[in-house]
Write a structure and sequence with these properties.
This protein has helices at 6-19, 24-31, 35-43, 50-60, 64-69, 74-83, 86-100. With 101 residues, it is mainly α.
Length: 101
C-alpha cells in the first residue's frame, strides 16, 4: 500500500506555486496560514490538511489528484499543452528542469 508522501506533495505544491508565479507569503496569506507553516508544507515537514487541500483547489484550481499522487490524466496534460504558446511550453520545461536537476 502506498502512503501519503509529504515531501513529494510539498515539491509538487512548490512547483505549482512557482509556475503560477506566486510567492510563498502571498499563497500562505490567501490560505490563512503563516508563511512558516506554508513552507513546512512545501518541505514536507507537515501534511497539508483537508481544509488546506480544498482551499488550494478552490482558490488556485490545483488538481488534487496530481498534488497528492503526482499523476495527471493524459487528457488534462494534452489540454494544458494545447492552450500554451510555444514560449510558455519552453519556459515551463526550463523551470521544471531547474527545480528537479
Amino acid at each position: 500500500m502506498d502512503f501519503f508522501d509529504n515531501e513529494q506533495v510539498g515539491k509538487r505544491l512548490r512547483h505549482l506555486r512557482c509556475i503560477m508565479d506566486i510567492s510563498a507569503s502571498e499563497m500562505a496569506d490567501s490560505l490563512g496560514v503563516t508563511t512558516g507553516h506554508f513552507r513546512k508544507w512545501e518541505r514536507g515537514d507537515h501534511a497539508i490538511s483537508l481544509v488546506g487541500l480544498d482551499m488550494l483547489h478552490r482558490l488556485y484550481g490545483m488538481d488534487l489528484n496530481y498534488l497528492i499522487t503526482g499523476k495527471v490524466r493524459e487528457q488534462d496534460f494534452a489540454n494544458a499543452l494545447f492552450e500554451m504558446t510555444p514560449e510558455e511550453v519552453a519556459e515551463n520545461a526550463q523551470k521544471a528542469y531547474e527545480e528537479n536537476y
